[in-house]
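Memo to structure team: turn this sequence into structure tokens by end of day. - J.P.
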Amino acid sequence: MEHPRPDDKNWTWVLEKECPDCGFTSDSFDRSELGAKIRTNVTDWRRVFDKGEIIHQRPPTTADRGPIWSALEYGAHVRDVYEVFTGRLLAMLKSSGTTFTNWDQDVTAMQKDYANEEPRKVMHALGVNAGEIATIFDRVRESEWSNTGIRSDGSHFTVESLGRYLLHDPVHHLWDVEQGFEALNG
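Reply from structure team:
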């Protein structure tokens, strides 16, 4: 099975304007809502994973994007996003100005063989990882929201902007999954 093309876009622009695809607007909610929004996102992912065998199917290949991940692969990615961002958030809360190690999400997808993972285990871990980071965001003190972190590509984040940036990823991938389901059913 051919792997999807690596995503080499710098998505930090979603902190400044609405995503034209999924409609996510990072400044449309108060930072105190991050934990609740992450928990709501998990509920949406549970509905995806309840759809049965279709979550294993990749949508048809497109000329502009090439192969596209299945819902299962997107879910496994979101599980790992929550895990990676938990580490980043904890590092920022411990020491402002921390630098994040590089995370190659495409290498991770191939190494973990997302397409062949057990859906129940993926969904369980996605829920656990999301719950962990949601709880951490719930407990961020007022003085910690401005702590900083720097991604390996030089992008700077505060605790607040990291949370808003993080939330776009699983929201956007739900949109990707819905587009995939439409292509499979169309």
